[in-house]
Specification:
- The protein is mainly alpha-helical.
- The chain is built from four helices and no strands.
- The longest helix has 17 residues.
Length: 92
């Protein structure tokens, strides 16, 4: 029964626009995240609804996530001796 109700709630999110998703978040969890992506907010809200109803990540998965090394954003770890050059109007 609980799973069926959860499925209906998640399916209902497909019909909401950004404003509707923010309202749904605010009703359940308080202030919504400042996102502009309808798809991302819909996915986050769906996950939270499912996690509340069916349980979130198990302890083993949480530990694995905590142990995983964080990936450095591309371009921030340039290495020793790297030279950065800026071209402007076709010249250096």
């Amino acid at each position: 029964m609980r799973r069926a109700v959860t499925e209906v709630q998640v399916r209902a999110l497909a019909h909401l626009d950004l404003h509707g998703l923010r309202q749904a978040w605010a009703l359940r969890y308080g202030s919504p995240p400042a996102l502009r992506s309808v798809e991302l907010l819909r996915s986050m809200l769906a996950w939270r609804i499912q996690a509340d109803a069916l349980g979130g990540l198990d302890a083993n998965t949480r530990r694995q996530i905590e142990r995983a090394a964080r990936a450095a954003p591309e371009g921030l770890d340039l290495g020793i001796g790297t030279r950065i050059r800026r071209d402007w109007q076709g010249g250096q």
